[in-house]
Amino acid sequence: MSLVVSMTLGVTGCGSKSSDSDKKVLKVAFECAYAPYNWTQESPEVGNGKQAVKIKNADGYAYGYEVEFAQRIADEMGYELEVYKIEWSSILMGLQDGSYDAVMTGVCYSPERDETYDFSTPYYKRQIVGVVRADSEYANYTKLSQFAGKNTKLTTQIATNYVPYKDEVPGGVIATDYETSSECFLAVQNKTADMVILDYTTSISALSTMNNLKMLNLDFTEPEGASNDCCIVFREGDPMRDTVQEALDKLNWNDKAEFDKLMDEMVKLQPSSN
Questions:
Q1: What's the whole-number mean pLDDT along residues 14-32?
Q2: pTM for this entry
């Protein structure tokens, strides 16, 4: 898969010159299918008067919380932003082989990941919730202890920091995890799973477009080593990390109230297809 990504995008050094201008380029990979963090749309027009960014390696334009914020960072740096659309399962492989400079798609810091990659300071902080069918026996649960003895089938997005939270559900049964969050919600809708564990923002997004789902604010506890801080990911030792971090510091992006304000705007702007 890494070879395929490399052949598709071309191996390029960070901070290379754009073919269309003399500006340096910041190349960032997103799923472009993870609303409201990032999504794909057919035209560049956005409801807030801004412009979505043309995807470099696929049809369409990308926008969302992370794309908007990546654009702010690139502007602060005086760079042109290039957006690459990559599936979650291979997105870090493409980073390692030099296909792009950074990854922004809801990746949270962990000590384990820090052994292989470098991270920026957080640009968003997530809250973990459960989502069940609104007509299920779980719909009015408020505490994890209520799941004891229920053999609740649990799902989440594969290879994410959500996975350890399954262990906090008493008597939970591990169901299939999925590549995308939308597949997780569909699994709950069609009763393949009883509950999906994801973050508040993604769940609010799903509930706005999908029927018969209910979000539960449960007493999850952040597992050791499973931070909910979303950070920009870089190759280990890449000087681009410090260049981007300097721009982040100048933007003074460290207030959760500001995080939530921008995310609320993106929830209203997101297309129903993402």
A1: 77
A2: 0.82
